Predict the structure.
Amino acid sequence: MSVGDYIRNSQVWKSIFRHPAPRDRRNRVVVMLTNVFLHLHPVSVRKSGIALSYTWCMGGLTFFMFLELTITGVLLMFYYRPTLEHAYNDILMLRDVATLGILRELHRWGAHAMVITIWLHMYRVFLTGSYKPPREFNWGVGVLLLVLTLLLSFTGYLLPWDQLAIWAITVGSNMARATPFLGHEGPGATFLQVGGVPLIHSGSDARFLLLGGRFVSGDTLLRFYVLHCVAIPLAVGVLIAVHFWRVRKDGGISGPM
Amino acid sequence: MSGTLDHSLQNGLGVYYLLVALMNVGFALYYQRYAEPRKPASATLWWAVAGFFALHAVAYGIFHAGWIMPKIIRTTVDRFADPISYTVLSVVGFAALLYWRKPLTRPQVAWGILMFSLLLGGWSFTDDNFRQIVAKEDNVPITMLIYSVGFFTWLGLYRAVQNDERMERGEPVLEKLEDEKVLVWPDLVYTELICMVIATVVLVVWSILLKAPLEQPATNAKAPNPSKAPWYFLGLQEMLVYFDPWMAGVVLPTLIIVGLIAMPYIDFNREGNGYYTFAQRKFAMVTFLFGFLVLWVVLIVLGTFLRGPNWNFFAPFEYWDPHKVLPLNNVNVSDIFWLQWLGTSPATVTFPGYSGSQLLNVIWRELPGLILVVGYLFVLPPLLAVTVFRKFFIKMGFIRYFVMINLLLFMASLPIKMVLRWSPLNLKYIVAMPEYFFNI
């Protein structure tokens, strides 16, 4: 008996994989049904539906980037403290000292790549008309995932706490003060006042809510850190679950009727 | 600016041209050995192109010849480059792409365009100013974006053209051909695995070759010039040239999101579901592609590569001079109406008969612009419903049409304001109420 056979016949192996290797038709079906990760897929699909020239694999790559960013992100959290005192120095340390300093590159370039792959995924879904019934709702979920992806990238942009970071966030968040009614330089805000006292001012408007202050500060750093590492990823995780579930429920990978 | 190229840059260019030459070798071999029927003439052409690039590779990589893009080309490009020519050329290119999609997506034509752009890119890279902007770490994704969007636009249109021709002949679409079911294990899981491996390799190589940028520690005391948002928002930042922040930064982005979500519900066309086609859904294709390619990608490229200090426009080979001053003449509709037509200063205009209310005075002053805006948003939709969009209106019903036409009008407002700004009118605001932060 070879070592491979010994392992495959052991109680441990059989407790994990409850069927022989997927080499025949029956076990190739069973493997999809008995594995929690693989069961996101159906058992069989139309051949034209999974051709790379049709799907471009961009949705799958977007999900892969999300996983890659989650893993490198968690590892980066070991090295990084979101305070004015430490943030920049921790990045310097990652660059110059840490053995796995390349994590930062993997995370940053992975984030850029995810923005591109999710746009291309949307592009493909549009070009094949796959947003049409019965997939209208799932297209909407996908648009929300797109927005959240951009917000993830945007909140992460601040964390290195260098000039590039704070001025990009300053430029980006300056828009919020022009929000109609809710920004202190937005149209309509001047009308929201009680007895001459304005309700919306630079210490109470949408921008203040976003930044936790009147300008990009240590409070902003904490806020963006929590949004970046906890709040938005959780929301994305939930929406990904809905998105994948609905792909299956709405008829699987799209194709001509 | 010195005109010499150092050796490491030349070695890099040598590798670049070598890779492009090898791409052409593969393309030529395809026509020589595998294409049905064989095309020896095509093969010869691409062998010649491969040789042309190989010549560059040898010149830079081995002899360090230091060729620099001829000055005459650079100065000519710079002379004609401005936001107007850039945008107009993009729109013309977009229209040409859709109109001549059949000849342009033929593999050899598309390949030729790709090779031309790679040659142009390689040549441009020898210019110091061009290189400094394009090779910036965080700008690398834009180059990837340009080429990946270009490739997939070709692929999508190529398949759409093929499907349209097939349907014309009464044949089933490509996606219908392999209609049989296959098992996900192994057919799909292995494809996914290979994609993941390739993606991992690309990411690791990218991360080794290119360091993540890290500038000086953050300080509120010194703003860099230009201060730019992250690259994927630069299309929105570019809109700030034509709109105030409340429009460019809040209302229009919100409408982009709302419009995308609403799209499946307003697209009443049931054809073209699940396969590439152009002919069956022309309106949807033209509208979406214009939004994505021109109003989004083209503006991002403009905002990233061509906007320098003070958000001034800088041609591709121009030095980013922070002291460049461009005369800017801002004219509002109220200026044209009160000053140019009636000869009174708009600042002194008061509501007739009662001047006690600032709000009334401002509204009276901006009445011409307000009428234009109200007409655009409330008179145009019913007018279009009984003329251009008559068939749409009948099929869509009131609510669908109402949502669609508003999204469309807001989308069109950007190119309209661009043109008004560039026209001899120099028009900045249609409605200018800085007193209430309400400028349109």
About this structure: Chain A has a mean pLDDT of 93. Residues 218-249 of chain A form the longest helix (32 residues). The radius of gyration of chain A is 24 Å. The CA atoms of residues 81 and 87 of chain A lie 5 Å apart.
